[in-house]
Design goal:
Strand content: 5-15%
CATH topology of the largest domain: Spore Coat Polysaccharide Biosynthesis Protein SpsA, Chain A
Mean pLDDT: 94
Number of domains: 2
Distance between the termini: 28 Å
Largest sheet: 7 strands, mixed
CATH superfamily of the largest domain: Spore Coat Polysaccharide Biosynthesis Protein SpsA, Chain A
Order of helices and strands: EHEHEHEEHEEHHEHHEEHHHHH
Number of helices: 13
CATH class of the largest domain: Alpha Beta
Shape: globular
Strand order of the largest sheet: 3-2-1-4-8-6-9
Number of strands: 10
Length: about 300
């Protein structure tokens, strides 16, 4: 009936899997939990996650080479044997004792999105940028808000989907690095006119990156966005802002200003009290610099996630 699928990379999934295993056992359903490790370089995480194999109906798969965020999710779906696929990220925490059964009450739709949330207090000053960004977004994450634009609000962090529907769409494997694979999947669902339902059944996101790493992942996402601008038009507020700058021929000036002040922006955003307006300015300036062919101060690293 239910295949629970979790891609992981350098993360200890044992607590998450134990919670899910307990709920699935209590629900008395046919199920499996499959965790796939995308060639984590840190041995200790793989060693710990191998304990997952000791649980009934659970498997831990170790990939020999890193395949990226899209391909590993597709691989998990190919490994699954049941009708329903429940995808979630590895850095999630179960907060509801009825998380599994709450999903199973809504299988009259083809896709069900449970949502996500974050802790009420800042876990550490080192993650202040990601935390501030996500907490602002949390205000728009209750199901009543997501349901107003169901495809645009799709996220792969926590969702249930029919296996037969997933196999007609799948995640776009041309996207290797971090960023926007969720938007493309939502667009594909819209093109298929899939019946999607948003419910309040969140997982808590506990794996917040430190400010430097989050900024690096943001730059990766912006490069992805620039390469997909045609497809993403109408689905990105940043592209809309960039197009407005182009309309008034200001994009070049913004790019030049950004190149001059990037280091100062980075210093602020990686500090202890970053402001989100400065984060948006950074993203818009960086995007203008990419589109204008300006040299970036920060070379891109390959994202292995």
């Amino acid at each position: 009936m239910l295949s629970i699928l979790i891609p992981t990379y350098d993360y200890d999934c044992r607590h998450l899997v134990n919670d899910l295993h307990g709920q699935a056992e209590q629900a008395g359903i046919k199920y499996e939990i499959i965790v796939a490790d995308d060639a984590s370089p840190t041995y200790i995480y793989k060693e710990r996650n191998r304990e997952i194999n000791r649980l009934s109906h659970c498997r831990f798969i170790e990939l020999a080479e890193n395949v990226g965020r899209a391909r590993i999710r597709n691989r998990l779906a190919d490994e699954a044997q049941y009708e329903w696929l429940l995808f979630m990220d590895c850095d999630a925490e179960v907060i509801s004792p009825t998380f599994i059964t709450d999903y199973l009450c809504h299988t009259d739709a083809e896709v069900i999105c449970g949502g996500l949330c974050h802790a009420d207090t800042l876990p550490s000053p080192t993650v202040s940028l990601r935390y501030a960004y996500e907490k602002r977004a949390d205000k728009r994450r209750p199901a009543r808000y997501r349901s107003a634009s169901p495809y645009e609000q799709f996220t792969p962090f926590n969702f249930l989907i029919l296996q037969k529907l997933f196999q007609t769409i799948r995640f776009d494997e041309t996207i290797y690095d971090y960023g926007h694979e969720d938007t493309l999947f939502g667009i594909a669902l819209q093109h298929r006119r899939a019946v999607i339902r948003h419910i309040d059944n969140p997982l808590r996101h506990v794996g917040l990156e430190n400010n430097c790493l989050f900024l690096e992942k943001t730059r990766l996402a912006l490069h992805n966005l620039a390469s997909m601008e045609g497809i993403m038009q109408g689905h990105s507020s940043l592209i809309n802002a960039y197009r407005q700058l182009c309309r008034f021929r200001l994009h070049g000036l913004v790019a030049a200003w950004f190149c001059k002040h990037e280091q100062r922006l980075v210093a602020h955003l990686t500090g202890l009290s970053p402001h989100l307006i400065m984060f948006f300015i950074y993203k818009l300036g960086y995007y203008c610099a990419i589109k204008s062919g300006c040299k970036c101060q920060h070379p891109m690293k390959q994202e292995k996630d």
